[in-house]
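Q: I'm writing up a methods section and want to include an example of the input and output format. Could you take the sequence below and give the corresponding predicted structure tokens, formatted cleanly so I can copy it straight into the document?
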Amino acid sequence: MLRFLLILGTAWWLSLPAFSQTTADKPTGPLAELSARDAVILGIVEGVTEFLPVSSTGHLIIASHALGLEKEEPLLDAAGDPLWYKKPSAQHPEGVALTLKLAADTYTVVIQAGAIAAVVLIYWGQLTGILRGLIGQNSAGLRLLRNIIVACIPAVLLGLTAGNFIDEYLFSIEAVVAALVSGSVLMLAAERWRKQQRASAASRLEPSDLTIRQAFGIGLMQCFALWPGMSRSMVTMVGGYFAGLSPARSAEFSFLVGLPILTGAALLKGYKAGPAMIQVFGTSSVILGSLVAAISAALAVKFLVNYLARHGLGVFAVYRIALALVIGAWFLVN
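A: Here is the clean output for your methods example:
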């Protein structure tokens, strides 16, 4: 762990000279600018909240609002031409212009690469076990891979078929607040159920011991994560509870299931709007944000596993209710 943090810290330090030159190197024009402070804040928020069961969406709403990254005016490049989130096409003749808000949303998804890298390094043993399973040397690793794939299928299919509906109807402050509160109720119910089942031998299950049916049940729970504010890690952990995993093992399976989903989301967003987003914020901002996300995610993952092993999810449910009140009050006043 210490070696991992030292490597990331050194890479971050080496990136600072380039970062300090970004303002001078940028062409003059109406491009937005992300300061080092903003990149660090977004990196911390993304890295910590992506894996804690507290909703990264809710925290990023607050961070983006506080940093003034919610402007909806179309962005132009240095030549005065529009930057595109979706270029004009036969399906979308007018296209979708890139705004500061869309650029910031893309930025927070792309810097997930840092958080993904942190989980890969922390759970390298399990991942190498999966690779050995593929060549017939580790049956538990092969079963773990099977369970990860099965748990990913429901959310991926629902996301592909209902993505437009979700974007149109569920990306609102009201929907996020409702998801935060609903998720808290679900967590408290799951925690109460777990304590009633504590003496069961099933609590000693490993993620590789899950049946296909149990893994699919966790996948169905993960579909709720498509509701912004619900939290992918939270619903996966709750699904793990109901499948018989202990809190710590539920968290670990949540991290592993998140790897292909988060990687796919980062690649898709990066493909759609990555180059335009880099024009807006600069490469150094992306590097800095990713490094900070990696460090903060590594610390968050280690903290969460140790905490859950002793205390469970209850405190996070209370925190989510407090967050819902803060978001609701903030946007009601503003």
